[in-house]
Design goal:
Blueprint (H helix, E strand, L loop, with lengths): L1 H17 L3 H5 L5 E6 L1 H9 L7 H12 E9 L2 H17 L3 E8 L2 E9 L5 E10 L7 E2 L2 E2 L2 E11 H10 L5 H10 L1
Helix pairs in contact: 3-4, 6-7
Pfam families: DUF4252
Keywords: Signal
Protein name: DUF4252 domain-containing protein
């Protein structure tokens, strides 16, 4: 009986470790830049009564109100980049995410994955995975980027995300806006 309890305990511990989010794993790692915005913060942002006649500002506020979770990690560490790549591959399969699109710009690759939402223009989860920055010589705060992983969850309107990324001139912004219309 003791062996059975020990075996089950070890199995549960290993499953808990395996299921750990890549964001949780690298949250405190000094080789990784980490951003996490909690659902409570989004509720606070949504409750701020901003009155505006600017349609772009209204769309941005609507987008913020629809997001329940936002996480980003970036790194220039090759070993961590490989681990993130492996995690993304497993997460895409286990979470039933589908590839929405991919964009290659020089050596950089941007992939968008989504989990379907209430209709063709909405998703429950959006994952953006960017690799190949090492050749592009992109630096943020003196750190050279190699890999960026962004995860959004909520009731996300792809049309609004596409407009936002297009306005910010982010890779894939125009394509993401079109994908929201054609998904």
């Amino acid at each position: 009986m003791k062996k059975l309890v020990l075996t089950i305990s070890i199995a549960l511990i290993s499953v808990g470790t395996y299921a750990q989010s890549i964001f949780d794993k690298y949250e405190s790692n000094p080789d990784v830049a980490f951003i996490s915005v909690s659902p409570k913060m989004f509720k606070m942002l949504g409750s701020i009564g901003i009155e505006t006649d600017d349609p772009e500002a209204k769309e941005f506020i609507s987008l913020v109100n629809s997001i329940t979770n936002f996480k980003v990690i970036t790194t220039d560490n090759g070993a961590i980049s490989k681990d993130i790549t492996s995690w993304v591959s497993k997460h895409v399969r286990s979470s039933d995410l589908e590839e929405l699109m991919r964009v290659r710009d020089g050596d950089s690759n941007v992939k968008f994955y989504v989990k379907e939402g209430k209709d063709d223009n909405h998703v429950k989860e959006l994952v953006m995975f960017v690799t190949g920055f090492e050749q592009a010589n992109v630096n943020i705060n003196g750190k050279k980027l190699e890999t960026v992983l962004l995860s959004l969850s909520g009731d996300i309107d792809l049309r609004q995300v596409g407009k936002l990324t297009d306005q910010m001139d982010l890779p894939g912004g125009k394509q993401l806006k079109k994908a929201g219309k054609n998904k």
